[in-house]
Amino acid sequence: MVKDIPLFPLNLVVFPREELNLHIFEPRYKQLINDCLLTKTTFGIPSYVETRIEYGTEVKIVEVSKLYEDGRMDIKTSGLRIFKVLDFQNPWDTKQYAGGPVELVECIDDTDASKAIRIVELCRELFEWLHMQEEIGLGETAVMYDVIHKIGLKPEEEYQLLKMSSESERQSYVINHLENLIPALERAEKAKEKIRMNGHFKHFDPLKF
């Protein structure tokens, strides 16, 4: 499906079902948001992480949390669908902001419940290592997008996740990342302990031959 939508490029990745809070202050984007509110339409956030405009996520405005006297605003948005930009027009028609036709990408919702549980388990282990378990609470109903930006993925890796057409494939990618990251943290922690012990008197049990 192809549709024309306003485009708001950002140097980040937004995923479907992810909640994103934005502070709107540039005149062109104040115009974009006001137009969307007036017409009750969505807009797109192309991910500008590989120095080009290609893939992004369509989002809807959930709430205007605060409106400032000078027209700035704080808004809450929610990710809907992934799209591929067919033609990035900047400016778009008579508007100050960019826009153009995008093709909505068909994603397979094959979420694997066992993988979802595994992701929560690994995230809890990771946050314990980082001493962040109290800052980032994870309930039994937590989903991948609650923590996706907090598990050490590079923007380019998040972008690769965005372009995947299968939810199960995304889950496997995240699990593989965490299963490699956590042992690396363990090795780093042991290395720190060895460094701390340098210069200290050490007690060793005698070896038995």
From TrEMBL:
Pfam families: LON_substr_bdg. Transmembrane segments: none annotated. Gene3D superfamilies: LON domain-like. Coiled coil: none annotated. Residues 4-180 form the Lon N-terminal domain. This is LON peptidase substrate-binding domain-containing protein. It comes from Marinoscillum luteum. The lineage of its organism: Bacteria, Pseudomonadati, Bacteroidota, Cytophagia, Cytophagales.
